[in-house]
Structure formats: C-alpha cells, structure tokens
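If your schedule permits, I should be very grateful for your opinion on a structural question. What I wish to show you is a protein chain and, alongside it, a tokenised description of its three-dimensional fold. Would you kindly read the sequence against the tokens and tell me how you understand this chain to fold? Here, with my thanks, is the record as I have it:

===
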Amino acid sequence: MCSNYEAVSRADRMLSFFGVVRNDNEGPILTWPTGLAPFIRLAEDGSGNRRVDDGAFGLLPGFAKELAYGRKTYNARTETVASLPSFRSAWKKGQRCIIPAEGIFEPNWESGKAVRWRIQQPGEVPMGIAGIWEQWADPESGEKMFSFAMLTVNADGHPVMSRFHRPEDEKRMVVILDPNQYNR
C-alpha cells in the first residue's frame, strides 16, 4: 500500500500525459497522507472532459472531524471500497479519479530492515493511479476542500510488488491504469 509518492505537478507533463491543463507549474511534489497534491476527475458540467484539482491525500468522508482522519484513508482496498463507511459514499456516487504520479515509494524488507524503494514506469513516464475522491467541509471553519484515496489490490503473486512491506504483512499494490482507461 502506498503512503508516499511523487505527484506529477508540472503543467507540461499534466497536459502531455493526462490531457488536463494545470495552472500551477511547480516541480514534483513529494506527497504524504494529508498533504495536498493534484488529482484528475471528470468535469461537473457533464461534458466528459477531465479537470485537475488539488486535494488532500487521504479521503475525508463527510463525517470526518478533522484533516488528520486522512492518515487512515489514503488507500482503499478494491475488495471493500463499496462497503466501508469511509469510502462507500464516494464509490456509490462514482467519484473516480486519476492520481498522477511520477513514482511511488514502498519499503523493501529483504535485508531485514525497511529500505525505501522508488517505483516508476520505464522511461520516467508518469503513471495514472486509480482513485476515488470526495469534497469535504471542515466542521470548524466550513472551508471546503477535495480529498482522494488510491485504490489497491492484493499483490501476493506480483513478481515485483510482492517484494514490499514486512514479510508477515499482506502484499498490496496500487492500481496503475493504462492510459486508454483514463476516460473510464
């Protein structure tokens, strides 16, 4: 499961690889749970066009009392996303998104200690990670913000991703989309 990644944030890379216009043009953002990063969703006008927004990494359901809740909800298991209270509303409403990443980081325990590995696509091509998103209102300030979570699947049999996390832990990996899946 991914708790840290490098977000795509440069405007030229967002346009070239994801077909969205990003007004900010900053370098890659090293993102941790509750940190702000760009995510891509369908425009609300029904046009089918994609748009990019910034949101907190860690889905904040309507009942969350504070931003820190996102430290528990940055990954959503595909097996339970439709039924768990934290995720089911976003899933039911079809609030799917693409999380643009230059690379993700996972701990490799083969040496007996956690060694942080960077995983990226060949040729440094950004990857689009499947996710869900929600709009949340801070109960104290009323301020609205977006948040998102990455979808994960079991990776026990995956030749690369099964090498990560503690030996006794279930092996999980994010869902990396093929670019021809982005519109779905």
